[in-house]
Design a protein that fits this description.
eight-stranded parallel β-barrel, globular, 8 strands, 44% helix
Length: 259
């Protein structure tokens, strides 16, 4: 089903958008999250375990609500990007990009000619409603929202070049992996990590592109929105479920006098 990309319009208007990580391969969770009112869902095929078949079912379910469907690919493979786009992804997140050349290759794989080199089968794929949207190929390039992730300290030095690539809509700072690349895995508040994040922020802003990230110590999603971040993704489905289940069990044990 081909829809207008409300996330892209929200970001163009300078409004921050809240998303959620969907890592469990369960369509009902995607449906619930979309109906809850999130601006976008990150259907995570990097750390999640959904097959492409399951991903399509998750997309169908999520379209019961209005959330934009952002698929995080496991990497920058052009063939995988093409299949995800044909399946109906409305936005992409590509992890671990280190160079502008890699960013250019992602854009080329995502867009139809002449802007890109995505293979054409528009009248037959789910993204066009199996041909129900005859103008799909003409509109697809304008509607897709491409987010690239800077997640390594080496990439920070080229952040301005990566952000400046035509077709890149947003740069998302992957703070966890950035910290790991600096030798501070799990310590997002380390001064060296903070310094590299600030350096990346300045570089991306100099290129005039929106920023995205996850919350970290001392910086909630609300704090980050006030700083000017527009793409914000805090919780993950598995983490939220574990928290809710743990709290439920703990409350029961307390009331029954058990530990």
């Amino acid at each position: 089903m081909f829809r207008e990309n409300t996330l892209k319009r929200r970001i163009a208007a300078g409004k921050p958008a809240l998303g959620v990580w969907i890592q469990m391969a369960e369509p009902s969770i995607a449906e619930i999250a979309s109906l809850a009112g999130y601006d976008f869902l990150i259907l995570d095929n990097e750390h999640g375990h959904a097959s492409l078949d399951t991903l399509v079912h998750m997309m169908r379910a999520a379209q019961a609500g209005d959330a934009t469907l952002m698929v995080r690919c496991p990497g920058s493979d052009g063939d995988y990007i093409k299949r995800v786009m044909d399946a109906g992804a409305e936005a992409l997140m590509i992890p671990m990009l280190d160079t502008p050349e890699e960013a250019k290759a992602v854009v080329k794989a995502t867009l139809y000619p002449p802007a890109g080199r995505r293979g054409y089968s528009s009248p037959t794929v789910r993204a066009s409603g199996y041909g129900a949207a005859p103008d799909h190929a003409k509109r697809a390039n304008d509607e897709v929202f491409i987010t690239v992730q800077i997640e390594h300290t080496d990439a920070v030095d080229r952040a301005a070049e990566i952000a400046a690539v035509e077709g890149v809509d947003c740069v998302f700072i992957g703070a966890n992996d950035l910290a790991g690349s600096l030798g501070h895995m799990g310590d997002l508040g380390h001064p060296e990590v903070e310094a590299r994040i600030r350096q990346c922020e300045d570089a991306v802003r100099s290129a005039g592109k929106p920023l995205g990230t996850i919350p970290r110590p001392g910086a909630s999603v609300l704090d980050l929105a006030k700083e000017g971040y527009l793409i914000l993704a805090g919780v993950a489905d598995s983490y939220s479920l574990r928290q809710a289940f743990t709290a439920d069990v703990a409350a029961f044990r307390k009331q029954t006098g058990e530990r």
